[in-house]
Amino acid sequence: MYRALHVAVVVPAYNERRAIEDTISTIPEFVDRVIVVDDASTDDTVARAELAASRATPERVEVVRHAANRGVGGAIATGYRRALALGCDVAVVMAGDGQMDPLDLPSLLEPIAHDVADYVKGNRFLHPAIWTEMPPARIVGNVLLSAATRVTSGYRHVFDSQCGYTAISRAALAQIDLDELWTRYGYPNDLLSRLHIAGVRVADVPVRPIYGEHWKSGIGFGAALHPLPWVLLRSWGSRLAARRRARP
Length: 248
Hints:
Distance between the termini: 43 Å
CATH architecture: Alpha-Beta Complex
Structural class: alpha/beta
CATH class: Alpha Beta
Strand content: 5-15%
Strand order of the largest sheet: 3-2-1-4-6-5-7
Radius of gyration: 17 Å
Largest sheet: 7 strands, mixed
Order of helices and strands: EHEHEHEHEHHEHHEHH
């Protein structure tokens, strides 16, 4: 529990055998439930996650497995549903690849605990290590996508749209249809637009960028380039349509 909030951490994982055990074992003790969602991995991610779960406090860590790959957005939606079913007040997303610093977790929870935001996302560009830790190509790509997402989502004050280190309140989750979320690459961009339509308060907080020596992105250039224009246009169109419907 964190400041009277029951906290769940959702860990989407696909072929994360290298980092999944460390990711689970380093989640702070104040987290009430850890929900690992294996997105039909082809390696032994599940076995390693279950081993880490066996070492934890009974019932604190559970592993949910998709029979078929649904994409990172689909895995997160599964985790959100489980967090809601467990009665948690906040659901945090920490990827299974070890790129999110557990020490940053309180910073994500503070705005929700003090009722100044309903959805809090990490912004690596607010951290001084961004220029030395994030690969240059990733910096360029993130800047371009963040600029585009500011327009399509309606949240002009947020940046680093692709950062998946987030926290969302139960009340905010109740305002969006999890079945309609974009399930694959581009999920954060789509979610921000839906949150704006629902009038959800969003805040950015600094988080440490982590790119280890053996880091390699699971998303190729083609995979990123193909869906994103469609996701952004769809999100923008949905937001504009909702705004027109809201006019008297």
